[in-house]
Write a structure and sequence with these properties.
Layout: H1 2-22, H2 40-53, H3 72-84, H4 92-119, H5 130-139, H6 174-177, H7 186-192, E1 196-199, E2 202-207, E3 210-213, E4 230-231, H8 239-252, H9 266-278, H10 289-294
Antiparallel strand pairs: 1-2, 2-3, 3-4
Helix pairs in contact: 5-8
């Protein structure tokens, strides 16, 4: 009996000890929960987010443009620069292109001006004084022109009119506007005009201060380098002497480069036109009353 009681007692003690060992005591903290295993994909997303949030200290710092506050002085300076800038974008290429075009325009203008100056004859601005005029008249007092085969003669044309004469206004140019060549025989010319003269290889008649070709007077002496009126003044002074005076005067002033021959050839007419244009006269290319007065020979 005693042996049975002892065995039962030992079993109870053994069971009590086992139960006590299995239960947590107050001194031990709460039981730790096991950590869940992390999902590899979720862990990669978390790492990327942390990488974006955390600045990389190894990267160089970027320069941030700070806003500029325009003070009154800065605004005025900026407006002034805008007014001075070329009418294009402010990139270096456009500025350089604008300067290049501007320089080309200036160069072209200068070349055109130089070309214009080169084409214009250089004339003396000073008119002849009285002593020079008197000397010229004395030299040609007994001057007589001769026909020049190098200067072609005009041909009779009853429909001929002086070019641009309709644009020359004033009484001094009426004879040029109304001029029309006439063909008559000697009898008719002598009966209608008192002053007839053989000058420079052709017959001319004088009327109202002008010499005109007398077409038909003598077909063997019909050399007319200019077909139109030639002014000589109130007296019937032979026009070849007047032409010689004019040629010398134009030579003195740098207009005429030809020979003093008393004929209204192409060079003389060109020199007259240049002088007339330079002095505000109609370019008649012949000797008229305003031109002779302007030269001091009228």
């Amino acid at each position: 009996m005693l042996k049975l009681i002892a065995i039962l007692t030992g079993c109870c003690l053994t069971l009590a000890v086992s139960i006590h060992a299995a239960e947590p005591t107050d001194q031990v903290g709460p039981k730790k929960q096991p950590k869940p295993k992390a999902n590899p994909k979720t862990q990669q997303v978390i790492q990327k987010q942390q990488h974006l949030k955390t600045p990389n200290a190894n990267l160089p710092k970027q320069h941030v443009n700070k806003p500029v506050t325009n003070t009154p002085n800065t605004t005025v300076h900026t407006d002034k620069l805008r007014r001075m800038a070329p009418p294009s974008t402010n990139t270096p290429a456009n500025v350089q292109s604008y300067k290049t075009q501007k320089n080309k325009q200036i160069e072209t203008t200068n070349q055109q001006q130089l070309q214009t100056n080169a084409n214009q004859p250089q004339f003396q601005k000073n008119k002849l004084n009285k002593q020079s005029i008197e000397k010229i008249r004395t030299q040609h007092r007994n001057f007589h022109a001769q026909a020049n085969t190098s200067i072609a003669s005009a041909r009779f044309n009853q429909n001929y009119r002086i070019t641009n004469a309709q644009n020359w206004n004033g009484s001094n140019y009426q004879v040029f506007r109304s001029y029309q060549p006439q063909w008559h025989d000697q009898g008719w010319w002598r009966s209608h005009h008192n002053h007839l003269s053989l000058i420079g290889g052709g017959w001319y008649f004088w009327s109202g201060g002008y010499w005109y070709p007398a077409w038909g007077y003598d077909e063997s002496a019909a050399y007319y380098p200019y077909d139109g009126p030639i002014y000589s003044g109130p007296s019937a002074r032979p026009f070849d002497q007047v032409v010689a005076d004019v040629q010398s005067a134009l030579q003195e002033q740098g207009y005429y480069k030809g020979e003093v021959d008393g004929l209204l050839g192409p060079l003389t007419r060109q020199a007259l036109a240049e002088y007339q244009s330079a002095n505000g006269l109609y370019a008649t290319e012949t000797i008229d009353q305003p031109t002779l007065s302007s030269l001091g020979l009228g």
